[in-house]
Write a structure and sequence with these properties.
The complex is a heterodimer of chains A (about 270) and B (about 260). With about 270 residues, chain A is mostly helical. Chain A has twelve helices and no strands. The longest helix of chain A is centred in the C-terminal third of the chain and has 41 residues. By secondary structure, chain B is mainly α. Chain B has two domains: about 30 residues; about 200 residues, MetI-like (MetI-like fold, Orthogonal Bundle), CATH 1.10.3720.10. The chains are: A mainly alpha (about 270), B mainly alpha (about 260). The interface between A and B is large, with 85 and 79 residues.
Chain lengths: ~270, ~260
């Protein structure tokens, strides 16, 4: 196949990328504005960053977001992995049932999942707050963890675990020494998805949290009624953190690979 | 090995409590009268009758569907050519494009939507246009990536074969590339249409409160009005409509596959 792309196609892709990055760059740019305006840049200033770090509800929101994402990721990764391993050895009926139920929060609109949980909590008279939000996050993260672990398990040779048991492993040892190392990549991918789902969640958090407990999304949503440039600084902060993490995640393996290639070339030449 | 099966039991209990029961709660609330307790459940169809008899509610539902369909069409119209061009790039550049498209998706959707406010207020666009821009902005990456994945899986030798057998570029595209990429378009539609119908913070943040969709109605009845039974009925109506449209989409997908 011809692998040539015309200048027009490149311009087209460029325009699309421009569209994707425009608002992000805009909000970062105006987070350094010295006035409240979102359309006129009156001068460079860090005052919105200062007021962000001095704002206790923003700092609390960041704390709640991180704490919730960390707990939800750890719990959902462990439960999701264990359940997926169990499912791979279960009857077809059980496997299909669990998959169908797991599909519900993934296919349902978020707002439906959210109000379901809210009605559930209030019917049981559970006081909503940080922990009800964490429980909800765990509930919608587990299906995604299982979704990324199950395909790996399917590719696994069932005889290997059997062999481990025959050779005297306890089931627990077989799990940790034989099964888990082979599905490690799926587990890590699932944990990453769970973390980002939880970190970014707005709809489900808003309906399952209680008074006084807001994560970053809820805070931003609640503060847009009036012009509040501190939110620009907060948005910009998220952009910086995400960019740094993504650069590390994407560039470090690239450098490692280059180094490996170089080593290989050196070895071949020697 | 039977031991391992027991590992699923805790989760079966968990998912019953945290997934199945909440769904049943919505159904229960939708079919009951407001303010009843567990002992005096009063079933009714009144919530649904109220929705469809109203002057405003059905039109909001209709508007949400319209916005979702138009958003999906725009995403296909912009996304297909983009994915098509990407599939023709060299492997490295294509991977770079995928990375560049994925990067913004890692930033919180609400924050990215908020970020548009500055630009949109500057041009004082009508709220309807602002909502469309926000929707396309949030959902276009899904469409591009899905179509790109389908296109990049097409075996290049098929295209060469088509040319060798005398098809010109247009014919090759219409009879080979397009049918083989339809599965990507269908999964793209699922990923765009579904969240677009139920979205409520995009219209709220960008439409300035004057452009209301079904998601805003649900939020309104749960957060402000406190009429949860009616809110549950609206959610149920929306969920059913979405299920039907998903079913039709999948059926179409299967039919196009059978045609091959």
């Amino acid at each position: 196949m011809e692998k040539k792309t015309g200048i027009l196609s490149k311009i087209y892709l460029g325009l699309i990328l421009f569209f994707f990055y425009l608002p992000i760059l805009y909000v970062v740019f105006f987070s350094f504005n010295s006035s409240k305006s979102l359309s006129k840049f009156t001068g460079f200033s860090l005052k919105w960053y200062e007021s962000m770090f001095a704002n206790s509800s923003i700092m609390e929101a960041i704390g709640y977001t991180v704490a919730c994402a960390v707990i939800a990721t750890i719990v959902s990764t462990i439960v999701g992995t264990i359940t997926a391993i169990g499912l791979s050895k279960s009857s077809k009926v059980l496997r299909e049932t669990v998959n169908q139920v797991n599909n519900l929060p993934m296919l349902n609109p978020e707002i439906v999942t959210a109000i379901g949980l809210m009605l559930f909590y209030t019917s049981l008279r559970i006081k909503t707050g940080f922990w009800t939000m964490v429980m909800a996050h765990i509930a919608f993260c587990i299906p995604y963890v299982m979704l990324s672990v199950l395909p790996r398990l399917r590719r696994l040779d069932p005889n290997i675990a059997e062999a481990a048991l025959d050779l005297g492993c306890t089931p627990l040892q077989a799990m940790f020494k034989v099964i888990i190392p082979q599905i490690k990549e799926g587990i890590i991918a699932g944990a990453l998805v769970a973390f980002s789902m939880s970190f970014d969640d707005f709809v489900i958090s808003m309906f399952t949290t209680g008074p006084g407990v807001a994560n970053i999304s809820i805070y931003v949503y609640g503060s847009v009624k009036r012009i509040n440039p501190t939110v620009n600084a907060l948005s910009a902060l998220i952009v910086y953190v995400v960019t740094i993490i993504l650069i590390i995640v994407n560039v470090v393996p690239m450098i490692q690979e280059k180094r490996r290639n170089k080593n290989n070339v050196l070895k071949e030449n020697v | 090995m039977k031991n391992f099966s027991k590992l699923t039991y805790p989760y079966v209990i968990w998912m019953t409590v945290m997934i199945i029961i909440p769904m049943l709660m919505i159904v229960l609330y939708a079919f009951t009268v407001q303010g009843n307790s567990v002992l005096t459940l009063q079933f009714t169809l009144g919530n649904f009758a109220r929705f469809f008899a109203d002057r405003i509610f059905p039109s909001v539902l209709w508007r949400s569907l319209k916005v979702a369909v138009i958003t999906t069409v725009i995403c296909i119209a912009i996304g297909y050519p983009a994915a098509f061009v990407m599939a023709k790039l060299k492997a490295n550049s294509a991977a770079m494009m995928v990375l560049l498209i994925t990067l913004p998706m890692w930033i919180n959707m609400l924050v990215r939507t908020y970020a548009w406010r500055g630009i949109l207020t500057r041009f004082s666009l009508p709220p309807e246009i602002a909502v469309y821009i926000g929707m396309v902005y949030n959902f276009l990456p899904f469409m591009i990536l899905q179509i790109y994945t389908a296109l990049s899986k097409i075996d290049p030798s098929l295209l060469i074969a088509a040319h060798d057998l005398g098809a010109n570029d247009r014919e090759t595209f219409l009879r080979v590339t397009l049918p083989l990429s339809l599965s990507g378009v269908v999964s793209g539609i699922t990923l765009v249409f579904l969240p677009a119908v139920s979205s409520f913070f995009i219209p709220k943040l960008l439409g300035g409160g004057s452009y209301i969709l079904i998601g805003n109605l649900i939020e309104e009845y749960f957060v402000s009005t406190g009429d949860w039974n009616f809110g549950a009925a609206i959610s149920l109506i929306m969920a059913i409509i979405i299920l039907i449209s998903m079913y039709i989409t999948r059926k179409l997908d299967r039919e196009t596959k059978e045609d091959d």
